[in-house]
Amino acid sequence: MVGAKTLGGWGVLVTRPAGQAESLCRLIESAGGRAIHFPTIAIEPTQSAQAAALLSESWDLIYFVSPNAVEQALALGADGTWPRVKWVAAVGRGTARALEAAGRAPDLVPSTRYDSESLLAMPELADMRDQRVLIVRGAGGRELFAQTIRERGAEVFFAEVYRRVRPAVDPAPLIARWREEVQLALATSDEVLINLVELIGEKGRAQLLATPLVVIAERTAQTARALGFATVRVAERAEDSAILDSLIELARGDSG
Questions:
Q1: What is the pLDDT of residue 114?
Q2: 199 HSE (CA, 13 A, CB side)
Q3: Alpha carbon distance 191, 57 (integer Å)
Q4: Are 246 and 255 in contact (CB under 8 A)?
Q5: What is the DSSP code string of 29-91?
Q6: Which residues pair with 156 in a beta bridge?
Q7: What pTM did the predictor assign?
Q8: Rounded distance between C-alpha atoms, residue 89 and residue 107, angstroms
Q9: Which domains are present in the chain?
């Protein structure tokens, strides 16, 4: 049992990509935990000429699905003020901050849960007849937003500006010290979670599945339970502070 508002020295496996985990790791450390960074996804630019051309066109709506989408769009030479775009949408606050830093704060950001479902619920997107929409994403992203917005009358295009790959990493050192060092884990997407299970492999599978897990979407929770995780908690929001709250709740023995 640990203190009600601290992690009491517990180790937290942070699976975010390199370069995207620092703020959460600092938050875990400030709450008395030990952040163990084990990225299960790496981000690679597509360097797509087609995506670059699409980003320079005029759009009624351009939707960025992640901070990675913003970063890689800018790397392709896009103007971060988006002068030829009527509305700019962001999936959540992290993406919104990236857009604002690039030169234009987004016009549409969900105020509750940060996902495509929440964005689609915004009244501004209820009628999309004759609207041209560009979705800026990684290769092979979710289709829900595109499918729904098409049904509402929009013409939809994709600028796939990055791809997600599984890192080449030796899990043996982590598995060897798991019982002593890893008390909690987190996964911020289905792909992150599945890669984690596959990277750990059979040798560490039992220990991993017994480790309480925090996720940020119910669909990922369902994936985790199907894989055999014994304890899964869905954070209230996709923000670092909400993830930390869920970690602390698990650490103090509140499995929900």
A1: 65
A2: 21
A3: 31
A4: no
A5: HHTT-EEEE----EEEE---HHHHHHHTS-EEEEEE-SHHHHHHHHHTT--TT-TTEEEEEES
A6: 133
A7: 0.78
A8: 6
A9: 11-41+169-251 (3.40.50.10090), 44-164 (3.40.50.10090)
